Amino acid sequence: MNITNLLRLALKALSDNKFRGFLTMLGIIIGVGSVITMLAIGQGSKNSIKAEISEMGSNMIMISPGAERMGGVRMSSDDMQTLKVKDYEDIRSSCKYVSLVSPTVNASGQAVYGANNTPTSVYGVNQDYLEIRNYKVEEGDVFSDQDIHSAAKVCLVGKTVVDALFTNGEEPVGKVIRFGTIPFRIVGILESKGSNTMGMDQDDLMLVPYTTVMKRIQAVTYLQGITCSALSEEFTDKAIEEISEVLRANHKLKEDADDDFNIRSQQELSSMMTSTSDMMSSLLAAVAAISLIVGGIGIMNIMYVSVTERTREIGLRMSIGAKGRDILSQFLIEATLLSVAGGVIGVLLGIVAAYVVKALLSYPVAISSWSIFLSFAVCTLIGIFFGWYPARKASNLDPIEALRYE
Length: 406
Fold this sequence. Notes:
Blueprint lengths: L2 H13 L2 H39 L3 E6 L3 E2 L2 E2 L10 H10 L3 E16 L2 E10 L2 H5 L4 E4 L4 H5 L4 E4 L1 H7 L10 E4 L2 E9 L15 E4 H8 L7 E6 L5 H15 L10 E5 H44 L1 H9 L4 H38 L7 H27 L3 H6 L2
Parallel strand pairs: 5-10, 7-9
Antiparallel strand pairs: 1-11, 1-12, 2-3, 4-5, 4-8, 4-11, 6-9, 7-10, 8-9
Helix pairs in contact: 1-11, 2-9, 2-11, 2-12, 3-8, 9-11, 9-12, 11-12
């Protein structure tokens, strides 16, 4: 019997039991829909992380104080004083694979203008920091080298701070705001960057000369960190080696001594976050795939019942010349059609669900063609795998015994 006739018989058998066929497909529909949605969320998250890291600068290098011990107790990074201004200056002058470098000293508090106030963070940096972190000035200008040298009370502010303090439409540039009790004159407004993947508002900040934070706010002589940018992403490792050599020499560390600083690159951060995202996506997809297994078992169960119900029909067909392979093929086609039809509906459901998640939760999603292809392939395999046993049972029936079956 040719494939066309077998396909027509399979479609007729399925159309005679539409509701039962739909219930059989339900497990496949839910499984495929869940897998498509979970993979879309995972891929969207990964793409968002990559885009954000690219926006921050894939060649960015972050240096922080290291794991220092005092009296056998590991100190908090806030208490460590291993990074000095000299370290920043030597990195800038000695490291040929480093293109930009900025010290960082931070503080948190209240920004106040008139009757308005908002909690925010002040970042003490130099001009290179804006280029390293891809911040751009929308209005006004950046503070100068003279401002850094004199520890001037000037600042650049993000959009969130502007919106919170200047509620009456005033022009912020040139205005004086207070951070705690210290007045700062606004010299520029930063372009909005929005929230990052972790939900942190990148516009809720003030950028001021690092000397101002060290002398007027924190009253410290050490740095809380140093942010650098390698010449390009391919030179990141060489830049890290250079920075490590400079810091170890400055801190007079012996060859067998541990570093009293930590160096992290965006490549490490990207690799770690991508790995975490992949693991979560795999776990979610694995949980969703359980529905596919359940759906496959449902197909096997219904096909087994169908063989039992149609025993006399099978006997009659075999008695007039149908071969075992024809019966086997017919039932395999029925099982595969159920699975693939469920897969088509499941893919459509998964795509719709992914965009609903994006619309309602503002979560990044990305539906890849390989996930759809994989879903169809898995559905076909499930139909063949779970339909094989009932189909084999049908093809092995004895025609005479089948005709006697009541």
